[in-house]
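[User] At your convenience, examine this fold.
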Amino acid sequence: MSGKSISILYLSFGSGHQIAAESLADSLRSAAPDIPIITEDPFSNSIAWLPSVLAGLQAATIVLAPDLYEFAWRRAPTRNNPARDPVLLQNFLLGQLGDHNSNVIVSTHVVPCALVSGLKKSNRLSRSTRVFGVITDYGLNSIWPVDHMDGYFVAHEELRSALVYRGVDPGTIHVTGIPIKPKFGLAPVTSSSHRLRVLMIVGGMRSGGYVMLQKYVMKVLNTLIALNEPRLQITVVTGNQTRLKQDLERLVDRCPYELEIKGYVNNMEALMAVHDILITKPGGLTIAEALASGMPLIVSRPAPGVESANVDFLARHGIALRGETAADVVRALQFCIENPGVMREMRSTAGRLGFPNSAEVVADRILNT
């Protein structure tokens, strides 16, 4: 591919969009080291307070008006949506893109795609600029599809069918998986122990939606301590939530099973390889990493919108168990312990749905489409 540069855009809601963008950028640099690759959140780089304010507004809407949020995510009009034509944001993004002079734009969030679409529609951005959208979840929000796109990269055939239903040319839709770091998909480490090895993620690069899980994880672990189930081995990752890590470390000596508390980690792929099942919030990136690692999931209560859509996907394919409450988690873990054959089947299904080489495949399609 000949070109000036590639811009990969994301928005700083949680960390999934950023991780997908960075994973894709790494693969593009490996495949085409002579092409400049720029990866950025075009808004928060210049407006530092924007991500926290928008995340706060999103959280408030989810808590105070969950039905409205669900409707907006799933059912708002897909054509003539006001999110497509905010002139001030278009002007700002155009200035950012002008600094890079990119002729390929990739976005891991729908909003930059919609803004670029508006710029192309108004001929303020060259019609020869190629634009690709990476959908980083297992459901479609109401803004998709976006006009003037040269390609979509999706996590599963179901999303391809949904885009075709909404009028997208099937030839532009690629089922590649969500871009993740290439180390995921390491061969699972088998164990002769009869313990169920459980990985629980309650924090990430940024706290984001994980803050809501603090009381949840404390209640889950206290319930399991009272249950006195010795056939468990649990690792909890708290990310940057240092206070939560300190609180959980006080539980270790009381546990009848092996309990390890970790803070921020940069070897999640290795942790997934040595555990049997994952307890987590149902974010798209985490799900993609788990599936690439062949891990079934126990999912906490989903937020309206995208997390609910992700849980629906997992449930349809039989690779997740309900974990909305501490009692749900206990029942799910007991089920896994007592039904090893079902666990093996779930792990096999998860592995078939995973895309360990997703970032490399997306990079190749971008460079050769």
